[in-house]
Amino acid sequence: MAANNRYCVIMGGGIGSRFWPYSRTDFPKQFIDFFGTGRSFIQMSFDRVQDIIPVDHIFVVTNALYAPLVKKQLPMLPEENILLEPARRNTAPCIAWAAYHIAAINPEASIMVAPSDHIILRETEFRKSVIKGFEFVEQHDALLTMGVKPSRPETGYGYIQIGKEQVPGINEVKTFTEKPNLELAKVFLDTGEFFWNSGIFLWKASAIKNALAEHCQDVASIFDKGAGLFGTPGELGFIANEFQNCPNISIDYAVMEKASNVYVECVDIGWSDVGTWGSLYEISPKNKDGNVTQNNKACMFNSKNNIVSMKEDKLVVAVGLNDYIIADADDVLLICPKADEQRIKLIVNEVKSLYGDKYI
Amino acid sequence: MAANNRYCVIMGGGIGSRFWPYSRTDFPKQFIDFFGTGRSFIQMSFDRVQDIIPVDHIFVVTNALYAPLVKKQLPMLPEENILLEPARRNTAPCIAWAAYHIAAINPEASIMVAPSDHIILRETEFRKSVIKGFEFVEQHDALLTMGVKPSRPETGYGYIQIGKEQVPGINEVKTFTEKPNLELAKVFLDTGEFFWNSGIFLWKASAIKNALAEHCQDVASIFDKGAGLFGTPGELGFIANEFQNCPNISIDYAVMEKASNVYVECVDIGWSDVGTWGSLYEISPKNKDGNVTQNNKACMFNSKNNIVSMKEDKLVVAVGLNDYIIADADDVLLICPKADEQRIKLIVNEVKSLYGDKYI
Question: Which of A258, B133, B218, B260 gives 20 to 30 Å between its CA and that of A189?
């Protein structure tokens, strides 16, 4: 049965620096329970696939640093399903390793690859879309990416322009487009031809291996050296020696923008990458003054449209603040206008230059 | 020798609610080392008199709650010199008790009464002024208050208008004036006749007892009931029973504004009552952007004229904030425009109504 060949790879190695100081190198965004629901981003990522993919077919690829966090937050995950990267090398090497590993276990495998730190509000629709995507890639030699129907002229996302429909809801890809300016984003929205690039992919293990071989020899050649070792006790030693030699390259750049067998599944699943404080603000419930205070004790006077993140039980009192991020993380307090959130990465660098890694 | 009859009473029972959340009911302003010098306000108040008054002539009157803090911060103070009020009753009952207590020990005593939470920058000048004041009250039946030469048209202080000069630098009092508006404060400054009411008093114990008897029988009659008990083991039981029956009344209202033998010593001692975040801001060293960050690790971007108080080693990053108070006290964070600092007392009440005493 095809379903027995289905796997999921959750990528959980990012450091989430745009969410500093809440997200820290030693406790990044994907492990945080931002919404106070009791489940972190990575736990929610796991939860939403476990009904359609058996637990022992779910893999988490993460940095070796985060092994204890993954084990603690996903105790039901078999330990051998946690692939620990010895170095940070972006998505292409991460996806390549998972594909080689799973293909060695099951050459007929089909794989969904998903980020660990996104939000999907319409989970039933998501699961239907995943199943439809698996069926497509099992029947076609295809690299399938999920394109999310845009709900607003978002300038923070990449877009995919769709081409000819292959089966209902799955189209050829005409172009991948970087983050547009607002004017262009409005045009994208109006045409109905552009979808947000979600970073969720489906393919057969063999298909992505072939695509890497064809379009990204820099990566494929390294993993090819380990042929025969994947799925054996020799794999870890091989990875420990070779993984760091991979180039730092994204799967979009390495494969998706080059391959000819790329398709997009057009979905409407309530997706957000929650890449910034602003996007967290957008998707969070607000009080009558437009403040997002999550589970915090917050007394806001003459203050509107702020997003507040404090550690449990800390009281924040704000007077006369509008459109700010107020993020308190024990040893760091950040107060920054939402409009200036692109500065946060620069601020992290500045703090690093002043204080080393202490506050990073 | 007259100096052997000199005493100092430091009033240290306030709760400093205008400095919330840094100042807390269980650790109020006078016990805080605001400037990171290693000495709290009350320690500095003690330090600045100990060269001119023997330690066993220095008394601290405070609320019973704060006995452990006083003992810890002033370990050299004899324990019997800490007078513990069983209730909060403003300055007149506090001063009355100290006067009755000291008069019982030494009927010839002269006393300087000083708040515990003010700043005096010119300590040598202050000590000279204290000695001159003692000499005056030892030679005259006088209630002497220190009037500070104003350096700016401050609207947050009370003023004393001086009358005829008695001895050089010591004048009769023409009027006591409440906090003026800015226009009036400018006139006060220009005339040269108005001095800030510092709340530092000098008098013989007998003189203040006489004044209380004449002008504030509500208080005097209570302490008169304890005649014969002050300075004996019976005093504590008497205070435990009777102190709470005193009216809540300030010494200014009870005596100073009524008595005819009130004089003002005109001093220039670098005094500030540091009654508000704004006044702390004014007297604190500022960086080139006008930010007061004390000993904190602060990265301020596009931010001017703020005052920041964080617990040691906490990093604050602020972007685009001007003229704010940023005060982090472990379990409470306050972000409030300096111009709105008069709201802080109301905020404390609001927080109390929401969360009880937890954050107060």
Answer: A258
Which residue type, as a one-letter code, is found at position B15? I
Inter-chain residue contact B326 with A335, CB threshold 8 Å: yes
**Among candidates A315, A330, A335 on the partner chain, residue whose Cβ is nearest the Cβ of B318:** A335
Select from B315, B335, B355 the Cβ nearest to the Cβ of A321. B335
Cα separation, A24 vs A18, in Å, equals 10
What are the residues facing A298 on neighbouring strands?
A316
- C-alpha A163/C-alpha A171 separation (Å) is 6
- Residue A187, token pair as written in the block: 């045009």
Question: How much is the ipTM here?
Answer: 0.76
Q: What is the pTM of this model?
A: 0.78
| pLDDT per residue as tens digits for the range A186-243 | 999 999 999 999 999 999 999 999 999 999 999 999 999 999 999 999 999 999 999 9
Distance between CA atoms of B18 and B334, rounded to whole angstroms? 12
pLDDT digits (tens, 9 = 90+) for B34-91: 777 789 999 999 999 999 999 999 999 999 999 999 999 999 999 999 999 999 999 9
CA B44 – CA B37 distance, rounded (Å):
10
**Alpha carbons B96 and B219: distance in angstroms, whole number:** 8
Please tell me which of the candidates B21, B335, B359 has its beta carbon nearest to residue A319.
B335
Query: Distances in Å between the alpha carbon of A231 and those of A12, A64, A242, A246?
Result: 21, 18, 16, 20
C-alpha A159, offset from chain centre? 16
H helices within A216-343, ranges in order?
Answer: 217-224, 235-242, 251, 277-283
Tokens linked to B247 = 């009216």
Strands A110-115 and A194-204, by their bridges, are: antiparallel
**Chain A residues with CB inside 8 Å of B336's CB?**
317-320
